[in-house]
Fold this sequence. Notes:
The complex is a heterodimer of chains A (314) and B (301). Chain A has two domains: 2-73, no CATH class; 95-307, MetI-like (MetI-like fold). Helices cover 78% and strands 0% of the residues of chain A. Chain A is built from twelve helices and no strands. In chain A, α6 (127-141) crosses α8 (174-208), α7 (144-159) packs across α10 (223-261) and α8 crosses α10 (223-261). The longest helix of chain A has 39 residues, at 223-261. Chain A is flat, with a radius of gyration of 24 Å. Chain B is mainly alpha-helical and 301 residues long. Chain B is built from twelve helices and no strands. Chain B has helices spanning 2-34, 36-53, 55-58, 90-126, 128-141, 146-157, 161-188, 191-198, 203-211, 216-239, 251-254, 268-295. At the A-B interface, α1, α6, α7, α8 and α10 of A face α5, α6, α10 and α12 of B.
Amino acid sequence: MQVYVFRRLLNIFPTLIGLSLIVFLMMRVIPGDATALILEESPTAVRKDELRAELGLDKPLWEQYTLWITGVARGDLGTSFWTNRPVTEGIQRTLPVTVELAAIASMVALVVALPFGILSAVKQDTIWDYVCRSISIAALSVPNFYLGTLVIVIPAVLWKWVPPVTYRPIWEDPLTNLQQFWLPALVIGASASATLMRMTRSAMLEVMRQDYIRTALAKGLTHRTVVLRHALKNSLIPVVTVFGALVAGLLTGTVITESIFNLPGMGRLTIDAIAQRDYPQIQANVLLFGLIYTLANLAVDLSYVVLNPRIRYG
Amino acid sequence: MASSLQRVDDLAAPSLAKPRGRSRLRRMMVLARRKPLGALGAGLMLLLVVVALLAPLLAPYDPYESISGARLLSPSLSHPMGTDNLGRDLLSRIIYGARISLMIGVLAGALGTLGGLTVGLISGYAGGWVDNVIQRVVDSLMAFPGLILALALVATLGPSLRNVMIAIAVGAIPNTSRVIRGAVLSAKQEDYVSAAHALGAPGWRIAIFHIVPNVMAPVLILASVGFGVSIIAEASLSFLGLGAQPPTPSWGVMLSGPSRRFMTDAPWMAIFPGLAISLVIFGINVFGDALRDILDPRLRG
């Protein structure tokens, strides 16, 4: 197992290099490079070749990449075109918002998905099962930007209530902060829990068909003990694998809900950067999203080995 | 000779065609009874196609026309879904919006699936270093969640409906090609491939005529998934202002930007376009589930 873990950890480096190459190249194939855009916006008109030299765009591509990636390794991700400040400042400012949102959303997802997924499997083909499954299909069908719009519009129309507009950090004003976060977290959590619930249900059903469950029931153990002690533990293994997909959902979910709920997180920052054509900021954010997703998938792979001792990797 | 053939055809046609048609219908009825949700999904998708194709006949008004004195009207007989802040008939805009969703779903979905099939086929069939190189690139692309990849692509290409379509299709290729590569690898082991090889068939021929038909089940499933994913992705990106631009009646655009300010006064502006998207996605989801059960019982969950 240690060998596998070590190999898997080593394997992450080619992926990270590939990731950075893609982000790098993507920003270099912009039709009619970035300098034209800066010169258009800039009040103090500099000459194009000067600007190109300043941004390092006159160097050969491999040298640009080496410069950029060594900068990244040192924590220097470039300077924002828009604010003229290091892009890491923007990320430092917005990351806590996104992390908080994702954390609450995943709690919502887990709290909803696990019990109802189990209920749905244990009471298969009863009214409970149908209700749970219908709700999960419905939740999967409503895109989060629509759900987000509805949870703002409906309370506003019915009770004239809108969530507080100006963002307050949780350490300054926890009450206002939670008032701002619970709705968007619920919106992201809804679709995430639907996926997770379906997965829990099918994994649970699979396990309940196994011989050792029949044996346990035949021994005279109560249904409850069998479900909670024997089945649940084993059915959670495949559920862990959707965690990677869950993180993807959380990341894209935050991009959309932050825009709807006016929360100054990484997602909002990215969308604004795209609108302002702030390429260094876009580049940094996309790189960070990719990094988070890659690490989440690594965590999934590793936890899979820990959770399922039957799997041996040479 | 010719006339006797003609006569046989005449005789054969009614007696053969009718039962065949009836049995196909009966088979579909049996399937529909066994998978009622799947049939409902198919019905909803058919509805999308019909509405999209017949939009000019079905829409009571021009989707771009601002009717004077008709701003923010609540739903009524003359405007069943009300009007928006510019006095445009919402029902007509939603009907025309079906065209955009269908077009994106079909084109981006097909492009993504085709791209994935090509890459997966080359990677899986060629093997060796070709496979290795392609898979490392796919690894790197899969390090981004789909919508983020599409977002980054749109950021470089610039926001427009065409670029969104390209971005969605390209964003789908890594995942699709990975699944198809797996199917190709297992099909490659089959005896009929060795047989074709022994008969001296060239590699491309084996790949296209022997392997592709045998990986059609995952291809169809992926295409149905791609159709749905593309529709959601277009709506999401348009919603974020990165896809179709106003006044295009895309469902995502109708929920976005300037119209949001009016939604608390005119909730129908928010409810109906979203309802249209949700219904379509619901249809695709349940249809896709049924399709997966029928085509690949091993994947049943």
